[in-house]
Each structure stands twice: as structure tokens, then as C-alpha cells.
């Protein structure tokens, strides 16, 4: 078993990859941007998303919205108040059957840069001007953005810790050029339609960036993470935690220094990932909550995996 944990330790040390972002605040960009909001299933949260876009520190006449509407409601009549605020707003009814065709048809409606987000996502006020400046300076084709959950109940900080760990692993995987999620990204027009049409090299020049001004979030009372693109990360983490629980039971029966060694090679690299993620976002790191997370986190991750397996099947 110790060999497995040593391999896990080496894997995390190798994987650790966070990109520093340097931005020239004196650069003024007048680039137009398209924001595509996908999978509309909650109108109230759609308006939260649009309002967060309306509050951007960026000329709204350089922003056009495209809403991919999978709901049964007539959204056009509900968004009349927004139509004269932005460059344009276009709504397209979409289903699983016509999805690819509809998205290919909107190509002429899109500007050079596209922010592709889920419904329910809220964006920080300075995101668009900063991210456009950065993508122009860096010549990247794709930038992945952090997604956080804001919980109304303070006792749900534990969920946030677990999510931030998974998100930090996702960050490092993307920066190591692994192909993961296709949502919550800013991407140039050509790469976006290459992605839609299945070109495996659409994100060949991509980075996952973490900054206090570059993040997306969702408001939730509680949420167990349910992102299919990260499924293998959950499985790997659950296997490690299952073995850790087995070692803990063995330690209780037969105390030895061997278990203390396992704790160090498991928890220290995980702490580096979570702490770095919080630090890059300039969020206060919850030390006591993290201690609690280390104690019952292994139980939680296994329960979370079983819960998500049931949801995926449904």
C-alpha cells in the first residue's frame, strides 16, 4: 500500500502547475466579445447571469449575447428590457438533436473572442476587460476560468474546500495540456468552432488562470460536485481515500509510525494544491475547516462518488 501512496505523492508533485498572470492595467482594449450562455433551465438564474454581465466594467455596446435555450419558455419576451443595453441579444432554441447544427449556424453572429459559460454562472465585475487584455497579450487561444460555489450556509465551507481541491487538480491538469472541460472558458472564434466540430487540437494553446478578478461562481445552498469531465479525478481521489481509511483502521488496531508517514505524503501535497488555489484568489484560507476536512474528507469523498454515480445513471 505504501507504494501506491508514494506514487500518488510523486504524481501530485509532478502535476502541480499554476500559471502566474501579469496584466497591463494601462492597456485599453476595444475588442468586441460574444458571450454564449448555454443550457437554460432556470430563468431566475439566467437573469442573475445577464445582470452580472450588465455590471461589467466594459462597454456594453461591445458585448453581444447568444442564449442557447433548452427550456420550454419563450425567453425572447422576457429579455426585452436587455435588448437595447448590449450590442445584440440572440436566442436560439436548442435540443440534443440539433445542438451541433445550431451552434455552427451562429458563427456569423460571433465576435473574435467568445466567453462560453453555463446558465446560473455569475461573473466578476472586472473579468471581461482583464481577460481580453490578457488573451491579446499572451496570444493564447483558450483560457479556462475558475468556478466557485458561494454557499449561503456557513457550514457548507466543507463543500467549498472539497470543490477547490478538485478545481486545483483540474487547473494543473489543463496546464499540463490534458483535455478536460469545454465550459467556462474564453476562446477565440476559430478554436471554439473547432471544439464544437470535434477537433482534438482545439485547446492546443490553452491555460487555466487563477486571479482575484478572473473567476465565475454559482450561488448554492449546497452542492455535491457533479461535473462529468472530472469524473476520473473523483474516482482516483476516492480510491486513495478508501486506502487511507483502510490504513487508518489498521493503525487503530496496530499503532505504528508507518501511518504517520502515510499522513505526511498524502496531506502535505493536497494542502499545497488547496492553499495555492485560495491564495491565488486572495481568499482567506479556513484553517480550522481544513483540519476538519482532513479528518472526515476521506469519508465524504467516497459518499460523494457514490452519490454522483447514482445521479449520472439517472
Structural features:
seven-stranded mixed β-sheet, 10 strands, Spore Coat Polysaccharide Biosynthesis Protein SpsA, Chain A, single chain, three-stranded mixed β-sheet, 2 domains, alpha/beta, 10 helices, 314 residues, elongated
Describe the structure.
With 314 residues, this protein is an alpha/beta fold. It has two domains: 2-15 and 229-313, no CATH class; 33-156 and 180-222, Spore Coat Polysaccharide Biosynthesis Protein SpsA, Chain A (Alpha-Beta Complex). It contains ten helices and ten strands. The chain has helices at 2-15, 43-54, 75-78, 99-105, 127-138, 157-175, 189-196, 231-253, 257-280, 287-313, and strands at 33-38, 63-69, 88-93, 113-118, 122-123, 142-144, 147-151, 185-188, 206-208, 216-220. A seven-stranded mixed beta sheet has the order 3-2-1-4-8-6-9. Strands 5-10-7 form a three-stranded mixed beta sheet. α1 runs parallel beside α9 (257-280), α6 crosses α9 (257-280) and α8 (231-253) packs across α10. The longest helix is centred in the C-terminal third of the chain and has 27 residues, at 287-313. The two termini are 35 Å apart. 31% of the residues are buried. The mean pLDDT is 81.
Please give a quick description of this structure.
This protein is α/β, with parallel strands linked by helices.
Topology pattern, helix = H, strand = E: HEHEHEHEEHEEHEHEEHHH
**Quick one: CATH superfamily of the largest domain?**
Spore Coat Polysaccharide Biosynthesis Protein SpsA, Chain A
Q: What's the domain count? A: 2
> How many distinct beta strands?
10
Distance between the termini: 35 Å
Shape: elongated
Strand count, sense and barrel status of the largest sheet are: 7 strands, mixed
CATH class of the largest domain: Alpha Beta
Radius of gyration: 21 Å
Strand order of the largest sheet: 3-2-1-4-8-6-9
Named CATH architecture of the largest domain: Alpha-Beta Complex
Structural class: alpha/beta
CATH topology-level fold name of the largest domain: Spore Coat Polysaccharide Biosynthesis Protein SpsA, Chain A
β-strand amount: 5-15%
Number of helices: 10
Amino acid at each position: 500500500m505504501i507504494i501506491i501512496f508514494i506514487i500518488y505523492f510523486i504524481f501530485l508533485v509532478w502535476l502541480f502547475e499554476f500559471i502566474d498572470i501579469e496584466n497591463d492595467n494601462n492597456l485599453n482594449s476595444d475588442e468586441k466579445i460574444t458571450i454564449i450562455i448555454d443550457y437554460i433551465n432556470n430563468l431566475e438564474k439566467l437573469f442573475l447571469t445577464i445582470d452580472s454581465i450588465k455590471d461589467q466594467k466594459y462597454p456594453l455596446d461591445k458585448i453581444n449575447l447568444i442564449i442557447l435555450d433548452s427550456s420550454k419558455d419563450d425567453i425572447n419576451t422576457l429579455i426585452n428590457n436587455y435588448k437595447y443595453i448590449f450590442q445584440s441579444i440572440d436566442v436560439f432554441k436548442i435540443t440534443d438533436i440539433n445542438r451541433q447544427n445550431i451552434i455552427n449556424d451562429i458563427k456569423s453572429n460571433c465576435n473574435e473572442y467568445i466567453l462560453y459559460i453555463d446558465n446560473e454562472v455569475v461573473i466578476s465585475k472586472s473579468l471581461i476587460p482583464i481577460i481580453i487584455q490578457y488573451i491579446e497579450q499572451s496570444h493564447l487561444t483558450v483560457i479556462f476560468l475558475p468556478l466557485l460555489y458561494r454557499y449561503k450556509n456557513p457550514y457548507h465551507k466543507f463543500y467549498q474546500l472539497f470543490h477547490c481541491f478538485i478545481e486545483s487538480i483540474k487547473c494543473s491538469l489543463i496546464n499540463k495540456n490534458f483535455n478536460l472541460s469545454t465550459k467556462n472558458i474564453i476562446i477565440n472564434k476559430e478554436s471554439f468552432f473547432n471544439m464544437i466540430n470535434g477537433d482534438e487540437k482545439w485547446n492546443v494553446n490553452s491555460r487555466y488562470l487563477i486571479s482575484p478578478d478572473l473567476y465565475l461562481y454559482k450561488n448554492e445552498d449546497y452542492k455535491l460536485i457533479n461535473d462529468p469531465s472530472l469524473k476520473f479525478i473523483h474516482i482516483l481521489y476516492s480510491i486513495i481515500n478508501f486506502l487511507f481509511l483502510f490504513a487508518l483502521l489498521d493503525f487503530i488496531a496496530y499503532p505504528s509510525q508507518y501511518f504517520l508517514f502515510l499522513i505526511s505524503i498524502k496531506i502535505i501535497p493536497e494542502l499545497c494544491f488547496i492553499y495555492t488555489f485560495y491564495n491565488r484568489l486572495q481568499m482567506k484560507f479556513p484553517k480550522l475547516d481544513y483540519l476538519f476536512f482532513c479528518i472526515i474528507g476521506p469519508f465524504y469523498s467516497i459518499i460523494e462518488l457514490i452519490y454522483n454515480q447514482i445521479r449520472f445513471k439517472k
